[in-house]
Amino acid sequence: MVYLKKMEAHGFKSFADKADISFDAGVTAVVGPNGSGKSNITDAIRWVLGEQSARSIRGVKMEDVIFNGTTDRKAMNYAYVRLVLDNASRTLQMDADEVHITRKLYRNGDSEYYINKERTRLKEINELFLDSGLGRNAYNIISQGEVDEVLKAKPEQRRGLIEEAAGVMKYKLRKKESEKRLEE
Ligand code: ATP
Ligand code: MG
């Protein structure tokens, strides 16, 4: 199974100094006082995986993820997050033991994504994680309230979750895309 080895963040929310957080395979607990940035870690993980909704990462507009300064520290003009994933299992379809995913956002709205050192598009990142059980819409991050949501979900939404887990989502999306092309 692929696992998260490391997260680097710089200029993302409260991470004004470059944060370099390593994880071991297995269980990790993050502890700290209120407001110390624990939830900002999961926000950063969601964000680098392509989160497009500022609200899902507790902001109003996307620019809110950029460190906005404190009384003695000036605001930054970009936010950067990189994940290092252990892919020795080849769960992600790339012939590499480690996969790096990077996202950078500038205050002027320019945004960049990278897979390893290659500049890429969000679509490629989504494709890479599709059916892997990872990715921003997968079930790898479960926040408060989401367990309730699953319980209350309509049957077709619940089916979507099962399909993602079973690994058939990729084929459904491809089918949809080719049907769209046929119509055009
Ligand atoms: P709790 O235990 O209450 O859940 P937490 O450890 O999860 O707290 P976070 O919510 O991760 O804390 O961090 C909140 C902190 O992040 C606040 O101090 C807030 O000011 C800071 N923060 C959020 N966005 C930015 C930003 N753009 N620039 C600077 N600081 C930010
Ligand atoms: Mg929190």
Automatic annotation (TrEMBL):
Domain of life: Bacteria
Compartment(s) of residence: Cytoplasm
List of residues binding ATP: 33-40
Its job: Required for chromosome condensation and partitioning.
Similarity comment text for this entry: Belongs to the SMC family.
Domain topic, free-text comment: Contains large globular domains required for ATP hydrolysis at each terminus and a third globular domain forming a flexible hinge near the middle of the molecule. These domains are separated by coiled-coil structures.
Oligomeric form and interacting partners: Homodimer.
Protein known as: Chromosome partition protein Smc
The organism of origin for this protein: Salinicoccus siamensis
Gene that encodes it: smc
